[in-house]
Amino acid sequence: MGSMQERRSEVRMMCADMIEVCWKIGGKTHRVTGLLEDISPSGACLQMEGAVPVGAEVRWHTRRQEFAGWVRYCVYREIGYFIGVEFTFRARWSKSLYQPQHLLDLRELAGKSELTRSPRPARPGPSS
């Protein structure tokens, strides 16, 4: 696919949660099940079986929060379509309102691995 320039202003957290996504095209409402792949306060990435048009407004609900945003990209990769969503201002995400079923902060994980990594054994020097 080539390289996409990274334009995110916030770190996204890896996650996994099944959601029902809906959008309208030409007056027709589409509802499909998707997988929430990653999330940040200002956007998310969804994996779905079919494409969603760039520019479409998508919505999904959780028990405590409604999400709404605009599709910024839709690309097909080996296992499905990956849809980048930029949230509307009122739909910003926070951990206190919604935590996906599985949530992983890679920065936190990297910090823990630095703390638990055992020191490297000293390399033997040249023999005299």
Describe this structure in words.
The protein has about 130 residues and is mainly β. The protein has a domain at about 15-95: Thrombin, subunit H, CATH 2.40.10. The protein is built from 1 helix and 7 strands. The protein has one helix spanning about 105-115; strands at about 15-25, 30-40, 45-50, 55-60, 65-75, 80-85, 100-105. Strands 1-2-3-6-5-4 form a 6-stranded antiparallel beta barrel. Strand 4 (about 55-60) and strand 5 form a beta hairpin. It is globular. Residues about 1-5 have low confidence and may be disordered.
N-to-C span: 55 Å
Helix content: under 10%
Number of strands: 7
Q: How is the main sheet built?
A: 6 strands, antiparallel, barrel
Broad shape: globular
CATH topology of the domain at 13-93: Thrombin, subunit H
Overall average residue pLDDT: 79
- The quaternary organization reads as single chain
Return the CATH class of the domain at 13-93: Mainly Beta
Strand order of the largest sheet: 1-2-3-6-5-4
- Low-confidence parts lasting 5 or more residues at pLDDT below 50? 1-6
